[in-house]
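Not sure how to ask, but would you mind making up any protein sequence you like and the tokens describing how it folds?
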Amino acid sequence: MKIAVMTNPGKLEFQERDIPSFSDTEVLIKIKAVGLCTWEQKFYKGIPGSYPFLGGHEISGTVEGVGKDVAQSLKKGDHVVVASLTRCGECYYCRRGLDNLCENTGTDSNPDSDGLWGPGGFSEYFLARGYEVYKISDDAVLETGTLAEPLACVLRSIDRSRLEVGDVALILGGGVMGLLHLLLARQRGAKVIVSEPDQFRREKALKLGADLTVDPINENLKAIIDNYTGGRGAEAVFFTAGGKKAIDGGLECLVPNGTMVIYGGTGAEDQITLDPKVFHYDEIYITGVTKHTKDTFRRAAELISSGTLPLSELITEIYPFEKIAEGFDRAGAMDTFRVIVTM
């Protein structure tokens, strides 16, 4: 089988490996599609000391083989999506039902005998533990199946926001994660405002059901939110991109007793300062979210099977596996959302 290894920043090398054999508790997956996530894009751009790296964690494919002790009913040819993160089931957090915080997540991503490390999805085949595999309907589009992992993460974000029917949700950033928040917030019955400086992305947000979009560079976000809500503000604010300026602007738009979810990544320069009185008098909540849980991944797989969300709108370009480097060259462009490769 072929694998695509990042040997240096901006360099991908195809290597040959044997198709792995599966144990009694494992499932062998024939990968059909994999997403080029922002996380892998960072390695492609360059992270010192990280190579050789075998990325790929937004995986969909078909079952090739099933170990005899795998509990769920799977057979060769089933369409599946893969949650490729270790869940040990034994640590403090797993036993509290917080498996997204598993203390042993990533332990199997340590360098192998060839010095490779990473989730391993940039490959024609993939070995998964039984609990990492989620069956989807046979008529589900495997390309959109690559969105199961980010969808599962965003479901957890929506859950933590305490969003209710009729609430106003303000989403900061109109990239893939912002638009997934938009789709799920609309599904919860919320009114959705997307703050995004790029016109192309604002137009996509409106197409996907945003009630209003704002250009935070050239418009006054707080004034627009106040006007839309009668001076009240948004019950939930989701930060997906934009750094400190976006976070500060979102906090200004939050209602008393509202919730801000820090979903997107931040840098050292994005530290914020808050007067503790806003917690005391306004009773606001600021929380974060990392990874997905087994439950949110299950729900994401069910949403993909149902076809109720227009997820294909988020896949803007598809490249064959042998042109994965071209895919990476396009993946970070503002006129793309999710770029995927197919095997």
User: Anything to note?
Assistant: The chain has eleven helices and 15 strands.
